[in-house]
Design goal:
This protein is mainly alpha-helical. It is built from 9 helices and no strands. The N terminus is likely disordered.
Length: about 140
């Protein structure tokens, strides 16, 4: 792949600079966010990574446009409000949330996918101190 094709592909991508939260002194907080690699921030690791990352967003856009064409403007607006309400229902930051209401609205509650098997919270490497995580979420730290 030539560099011109890669640049045009990256131009349409979402910037990844916001993925590295900065600490109080402008240095990355490695304790909370882990170690980063400059290579991972510059280029996607696979050509399909950007497509897979935005799959659900693209799927929702397509469903909303189809729903708008069939039923009118009120149907996608109502569904977006329900999605937003379902996304706000969460457990505390240190407890894993299954987002069952959101899965039910999207119709993916009856299917078993990759993330259902390999995203087991018991095997997660990102378990932190509960008090620190709640204070960080509330903006006290």
């Amino acid at each position: 792949m030539n560099s011109r094709g890669l640049r045009s592909q990256l131009k349409d991508s979402v910037p990844v600079a916001g993925l590295c939260p900065q600490g109080a002194y402008g240095v990355q907080d490695s304790l909370r966010s882990g170690f980063t690699s400059v290579k991972n921030e510059l280029l996607p690791s696979h050509p399909l990574e950007l497509s897979e990352k935005n799959f659900q967003l693209n799927q929702d856009k397509m469903n909303f446009s189809t729903l708008r064409n069939i039923q009118g403007l009120h149907a996608p607006l109502k569904l977006q409000m329900e999605y937003r309400a379902a996304r706000q229902i969460q457990r505390l930051p240190f407890l894993p949330s299954s987002n069952l209401a959101l899965d039910t609205l999207r119709g993916s509650d009856e299917s078993i996918g990759f993330e259902d098997i390999l995203c087991d919270p018991a095997q997660s490497e990102v378990m932190g101190e509960p008090h620190m995580m709640v204070e960080y979420k509330l903006g006290l730290l």
